[in-house]
């Protein structure tokens, strides 16, 4: 089970985008994440009339390493560490280390 999953709200703790929050769009195999409106880069694109794409400078999200983000806890308003616990029904669930509250509702 992964500590950070697609759809989680995360906060960046290191790097150029430090302090920004966003939703995880994609989790890649090499511990990298695509986060909405975080780590934006400019890409120069050539026009391609076959797919009706205009050329120019486009802004898009670049992957960020999972070690540079923390799961955002809405109750405390901060990023927090995540642990695992076996629930009463026998399923493994993610919990915040600070208060033991479940991440998944």
Characterise this structure:
With 105 residues, the protein is an all-beta fold. The chain has no helices and 10 strands. It has strands at residues 9-12, 21-27, 32-35, 40-45, 56-61, 64-65, 69-73, 78-80, 82-86, 92-96. A hairpin with an 8-residue loop joins strand 1 (9-12) and strand 2 (21-27). 12% of the residues are buried. The mean pLDDT is 93.
Provide the CATH topology of the domain at 9-77.
SH3 type barrels
Could you say which overall geometry the principal axes of the C-alpha atoms support? Answer: elongated
End-to-end separation in angstroms reads 16 Å
Residue share in helix: under 10%
Number of strands: 10
Model regions low in confidence, pLDDT < 50 over at least 5 residues: none
Radius of gyration: 17 Å
Residue fraction in strands:
35-45%
Structural class by secondary-structure content: mainly beta
**Secondary-structure arrangement, i.e. CATH architecture of the domain at 9-77:** Roll
Rounded average pLDDT: 93
In sequence order, what are the helices and strands, one letter per element? EEEEEEEEEE
Largest sheet: 6 strands, antiparallel
> Briefly, what CATH class of the domain at 9-77?
Mainly Beta
Number of DSSP helical runs: 0
As laid out across the biggest beta sheet, the strand order is: 6-3-2-1-7-8
